[in-house]
Amino acid sequence: MKSVKLHEMKKVEIVVRGEDLDFVIDLLERAGVSGYTIIHNLSGKGSHGFHEGHLLFNEEDTLVMVISVMPESLVEALLEGITPFLNKHSGVVFVSSVMVSRVEKFGDVPTSAGGGS
Strand 7-17 relative to strand 49-51: parallel, antiparallel, unpaired? Predict the structure, then answer.
């Protein structure tokens, strides 16, 4: 049985108000990120108190999370673009290391990047 080769990448999770979603998507695309997942209607508690998801008529007032996996080389550009925004708006960014098996799904990534099996 052939073992799966894993490649190290970075997972970026961005939580913002729904009204700021278009800004985040534009930023990801300008940075060259090949894809992302959007989760609407988040509920949770943070420094601004409790946020309730599932508002019936206005998704712009809810919180959304945009999740993307990318090469480390794209993270710096993304952080440079979002830092001025976060200085004026509510939101948070999480960056963590992840291992992926299908590195070709993440854009122009050298096939020798990362490692492990």
Answer: unpaired
CATH number at residue 93: 3.30.70.120
How many domains does the chain divide into? 1
Show the domain range for 96: 7-102
The token pair that represents 82 in the structure block: 């979002």
- Tens digits of per-residue pLDDT, 91-111? 999 999 999 998 888 876 554
Categorize the per-residue pLDDT at 115 as very low, low, confident or very high, splitting at 50, 70 and 90: very low
> What are the backbone angles phi and psi of residue 55, rounded to the nearest 5°?
-70, 135
Higher confidence at residue 48 or residue 77? 77
Exposure of 81 by Cβ count < 10 A (0-12 exposed, 13-18 middle, 19+ buried)?
A: middle
d(CA 15, CA 112): 32
pLDDT over 60 (residue 33): yes
| Dist CA 91 CA 64 (whole Å) | 10
Smallest CA-to-CA distance from 65 within 80, 53, 77 is with: 53
